[in-house]
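Forgive a beginner's question, but might I ask you for the amino acids of a protein and the tokens describing how it folds?
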Amino acid sequence: MARTGPIPVAEFMSAALADPEHGYYMGRDPFGTGGDFTTAPEVSQMFGELIGLWCALVWQSMGSPERIILAEIGPGRGTLMLDLLRAAAALPPFADSLDVHLIETSPALRNRQAQTLAGKPVTWHERFEDLPDGPLLLVANELFDALPIRQLEKIAGQWHERMVGLDDKGDFAFVTGPVVAGPPLAPAALAAEDGALAELCPQGRELAARIARRLADQGGAALIIDYGYGKSASGDTLQALKGHRYHPVLSAPGTADLTAHVDFQALAEAALGPAKVHGPVSQGRFLMRLGLEERALMLMKGATHDQAAELARGARRLIDPGEMGTLFQVMAFSHPLLPTPPGLEP
């Protein structure tokens, strides 16, 4: 920046998260109580188990193929996949059909996933495009919120690229960039008043479109779980987390997680056509429809008092509107001929 000037927010976010040497995800395990944030698979084993049930039911709706690619993109510590595979073992024909793949760019997280899934036959890739051919079950939990976003600012009736530059003290600061002609914003965002911010996630849209084309060509379904909003709108949702607390977005990049709310309408528009789009529905409704309460009661029967209390706390955190139940949304893409996947009924 000192040499060439400000850079777009998307470029700043990409470098802060994924720079090979200094990027946030490249050399650390950010999950759990000792990290910066906790994801649903770390809250309760029931989350991954119910995702495993969902995958098994979709597999059956596909005619129970003898071989199917099971892939997770952005698999964290591997906890979700471990719980998913444990649930899959209850249906041996399904478990035997699985060819398991993880898409991960972080060397540190790959190592952690290998430890979690020790003894499981797993293949790693860096890109979605590297997956082998065949019918696909894809899971993406809290992936799209970490993809770089563009921010636009409306000034005197025109949208400008929001940039990150250096202030007089040499600290990072937001600055106004060039005018963006005809920004691809939804009507609700375009109509925003002066001073408004709007966000775009080109990488998210491109990935959604690639997934949809793959499902249309080779069959299968994809499950996307993330926090965000169902309808496109204007607003500033870029945030940083460090030590489970909000952190200044531009302070010490590479040491804090940067995320933005997912625009599920934009993902749906990118996927619709090649694939069918289902949802979004709230995470709480989705998990309840899959039997979270029944699963919790089943596990509690053989649990100690403390274990039962922990199971109850985990279930509540996953589905309560004041916790993760409403903020997190669930959407699925599927081959056009498949029925509506479980949990995503209107």
Remarks:
- The mean pLDDT is 94.
